[in-house]
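Recap slide: Tripartite tricarboxylate transporter substrate binding protein, sequence and predicted structure.
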Amino acid sequence: MHRLALPGRWHGRGGLRRPVRPRGRPPGAGKEVARCLPARRLTSARSYRRRQGFARRGPMHVMGRTGTSRTPVLAALAVAPVLCAVACSDGASGGGDEECADYPGSDIEFIVPYSAGGGFDTWARVIAPELADDLGVNVPVANRDGAGGITGVTEVFGTRPDGSTIVITEPGILATAQLTGTSDLDFAELDVVGRVAVGPEVIVVRADSEWDTIEDVQAAAGGGPVLMGTGGLAAVNIISFDELGIPFENVSHDGSSEALLSVVRGDTAIALFPLASVAEGIRAGDLKPLLLVGTPPGEDNPDADVVAGVPTLDEATGQDGLGAALEQHRIVATAPDTPQCIVESLSESMAAAFQDDGLVGDFQEAGLVPAHMDAAEAQEVLQSTIDTLTEYEDLLSQSFEG
């Protein structure tokens, strides 16, 4: 547990100062080749088979590995250089043809930038087997916790752009690290594969706390900052509490479980985490919800009942849309400059997984509420989050000074 108290603002574990790529590169720079690749022609054998109506096969029964002919696929791939030459008036080469034709040629490592047992880890371990089945390779999950979720993403950022490594992360964490200078990377350059979930966050206190409303916390904060348990400080903490006029001292822990336990023990007084992370504690009578940051969950969300009637950040601050801009999106991404056909292949496999009846049952059993988006839509979510939080760049930078 690390406690940092700074004048005016407070911050937890920072990111990594590891310059891999200069910031400020124009959007889309370096992706001309990807744009040249014909999205529907140049693709993997697995995508071709799905569009032709072939049944899905397991990891050891993919085309080309059991003697099945790949002639139709190769025929389609053969025209790719010609199509690319026609499509690109600037004469850029098609590049990446071999990678696309053979992808995936090896196992795909699925990195979780947090310790095992948390929400991101659960999502990855539920999805990974489906990706493995669909792509025909192993998809082992590896935890790379550190720097509030930035260490694992930084590792993926620096890997070869061949789709062999993917990571599950959250745009708000990335934007915070980028805007505060705790990371020198431009995370908007990541190639996003898709979104798996989105949901509101909840401000909670210990169940027997004397604070019953957010107004109680605001009144108490007049006597000094409140102790907040976090798993690594993010923009949602800084912006929400600034708009509410509540100063806080951050007490950083290794993940949400440890941070929420600190609230239950009384080591810290308050926390802000996704609904999925706090619902169990609320049901058990250990935590009390005070405020919802984000869009109230619908009836299809099994945790909707634990925050029924809880006021929202928009209501408390009078700013419509503020909560929705801060709620948590869980996205899967791979290294910058990955060929578009590989991004598409991963995106299609993820989409297929979310349509699988067996996986839907796994979601329900694990208490997960899916909200899938394809690669293009999820890429927009990442960029939009960075753009929105840029409006708070001065506040975020001040919070991480020192």
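The longest strand covers residues 191-199.
Residues 219 and 302 are 33 Å apart (CA to CA).
(End of recap.)
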